Amino acid sequence: MSYKRVTLSQFLMEGQHRYHGSGTFTSLLTDIRTTCKMISHEVNRGAMAGNLGVAGTENVQGEQQKKLDVLANEIFLHMTAQSGNYAAMASEELEDVHTVHGAHGRYLLLFDPLDGSSNIDINIAVGSIFSILRIPDGVTGTPEEVFLQPGVEQVAAGYAIYGSSTMLVLTTGHGVNGFTLDQNIGVFVLTHPNMRIPEDASEFAINTSRMRFWEPPVKRYIDECLAGTEGPRGKDFNMRWVAAMVAEVHRILCRGGVFMYPVDERNAKQGGKLRLMYEANPMSFIVEQAGGMAITGRDRILEVEPTALHQRVGVILGSKNEVERIRRYHEEHDAAGGKPLA
Ligand code: F6P
Fold first, then answer.
1. What is the per-residue pLDDT for 66?
2. Which of 24, 87, 88, 151 has its CA 20 to 30 A from that of 104?
3. 8-192, superfamily in CATH?
4. pTM for the full model?
5. Do domains 8-192 and 203-335 have the same CATH topology?
6. Which atom of ligand 1 is nearest to the CA of 259?
7. Residue 217 · residue 329 · CB < 8 Å
8. Sheet harboring 238-239: ordered strands across?
């Protein structure tokens, strides 16, 4: 490693000075940094540590929990509660808000401790996603109500990807930066400064096994991509599906493209598949900060007013011109009398 490289700690300190911060962000993100390093270690040890397989329990969404889901959730709760920076936390794996007694901070943390957990047992990339909100001044209400703020209110968000290398990708509203974990010295190093998503792309990610349930505008977009050079787009498209949103978003940040988990006939009753507060919002914040776009199909995700902690939503995000095209297809569909599913 070159000794001229910038570590995550140095990067955070530099940001603190540049934006005249009090050190709060540095502290908030330091908690996350340690958490992700510990989870990365457990993911890496995999079968050797007996970390693979199911835990034999279900989470609040009725999904089977993997051992690593449970472990990653415990690591998140424990490692981020100790400093007292966060007053409360909400997790994909917990039904209710977890309040931190004696906390001094006015920040809220939401997280999906291990995204894409069906990949764990087959040694394919997984990740952690987090979103940080501030408790508004003079706020009253139940702990859950305090969390129900639209994504535009996020003060920071990011993800860790545990792939061929471990990376932490962050935004505090001043662009997006990516750090790679040097496993030998246990330090995150700035390797992807100022990540930008190309505006045009010819790669899409969608679970095509659900094609028969899609809304017409989604089907129209994918049909046109599949028609390639002979179709209306006049170019060939490539397709990828990792089945871990973190990995799909990471690919898009590195080389562009579109990721879609739209509302369809099967998931419309629940509002979609992905969770608004700790999956869609943080990823949309990152994508927008990198020059991309993120919508439900019709609306900007970051402006969706949440009504529940575990609310689900349709997600279409990535390269601006492609996502804008998909938004337009929804608009044209509705203008022609088509009924939205959700
Ligand atoms: O629950 C979230 C998630 O694992 C995402 O990370 C991923 O994009 C999606 O679900 C995979 O869904 P499917 O099982 O339909 O491939």
1. 87
2. 151
3. Fructose-1,6-Bisphosphatase, subunit A, domain 1 (3.30.540.10)
4. 0.96
5. no
6. 8
7. yes
8. 238-239, 203-205, 258-261, 315-318, 293-295
